[in-house]
Each structure stands twice: as structure tokens, then as C-alpha cells.
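Write out this protein's structure.
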Amino acid sequence: MPRRDETRYVLYYWPSLQGRGEPIRLLFEEAGVPYVDIARLPEDEGGGVAAIEPALAGETTGLLPFAPPFLEVDGLLIAQAANILQFLAPRFGLVPDDEPSRVAAHQIQLTLADLMSEAHDTHHPISVNLYYEDQKEEAKRRAASFTAERMPKFLGYFEDLLRRNRRSKGRHLVGTKLSYVDLSMFQVLSGLAYAFPNAFARLEPEIPLLVALRDRVAARPRIAAYLASERRLPFHEGGLFRHYPELDEKPAAGKTGARRRKTSPKR
């Protein structure tokens, strides 16, 4: 059981995005530990984007974060999603106790961060300060390489990690029970399936252990309740994982096309 205490955990991340803050939310939700997602509070309660700005301007104590997400806890201001997860997971029993397993979990989380960055760069290959429409042709080339080469390489690697973890018989990435990297893997697989449904459908038969892990995480009681709640923000075309049909592969013969993209922000 996760350790319950009176510690106040304050998460700082963009109020309308899953993005790199979502693995942290998933950890809190699975642990059943209360947290304040401060930018999602009303502005008159100290929320909104304005809540993030003082830390980015260096107006708070502790290390200066480069960008959200960051976490305020016990007088610390901790930045970088993988760093935050590495700090929190031992408190909530979501990583094994032994040092080799903790190092392995952090290594996997950093590799997931690499994959998330490459997925982001499919729609913003030139600059984050440009609209997608301003770099559309470059995005098509980047996405074609990502779906044909990088995505299968990353997913094949993670599938092999599951296969090699004989202690859990392919059920978990590290150790013998759920850890924070399993939660993060669920998020990344969900994002890839949203952004590239045709490419993901092609690869899905090759990653049965990952697919099974994703489905088990989604079915966990606290995660299922979170996914069904208003706290879970939807994927959309303003986030890290974006579904632009022109960036996905063509559907396989006999398959229906990619789902229609909902209207959403350009950036």
C-alpha cells in the first residue's frame, strides 16, 4: 500500500495539456495520493498559467526550472519529469527497493522521454515557435521517418525489455509488480495510438506484451476511474501527441482510414 502522509504535493504544468506532465499525474492517481494541479485551478484561487510564471522567472527559492513540469514538495522545487518520477516513486511504492532496479527504471524513463521528444518533433521539426502549417512539408518527411524507422525501433526495444524481465513473466518493465515506468509506458502507447493510428495498428501485432501491459494499466481501478474523470485531459492537436492524418501512414488494405481529427488549436 502507498504511504499516506500530510505532505503537500503541488504540480506545475500547463492547464490544458497532458504532455510531459501526464506521467506524473498518473503516478499520483495510481498511488491514491492527493496533489494540487495548480495551473488547473481558477485564477482567483491562485491557478492558471500565472501560477507557473514566478518559478520560470526565478522568483522562487531552489533550483531554477527550465520549463514545466516541476513539482513543489517539502521545500524543494524539482524539475524534469523523469527526475520528479524518480523522486516520488519510492515514496509511494511504485519502484522496487533495490538500487539496480531503480537505476533500470530511471534509464527506461529517460528512453521514454527520448521517444516522446521524437514524437513531438514530427509536427514541429524546425521550430516550436512556428505553427505546424509553417513547417508542414518538413513535418511530413520527419513523420515518415519516425513511423517507418524510429517508432518500431523504440517499441521493439521496450517489447524486448518486457520479454527479458523473466521475474514478472513479461508483465512489467522492472521488478515483479507495477512501477512508474509501466504507467509512463501506458501513456506513451496511448499517445502514439492517437497520433499515428495506422502506423500503430501495423506495429501492434509485433508488440503483444506492450499492448497487454497498456490494457492492464488502463484497467487498474484507480487509473480507470481517473481516465473516466474530468481530471484526465483529452489528447488534442495542441499537445505533444497530435493526430494529423497527413503525417500518419496510409491505412492497410481492407482497413478503415484514420479517425477524423477534432477541431483544436494549431500549436
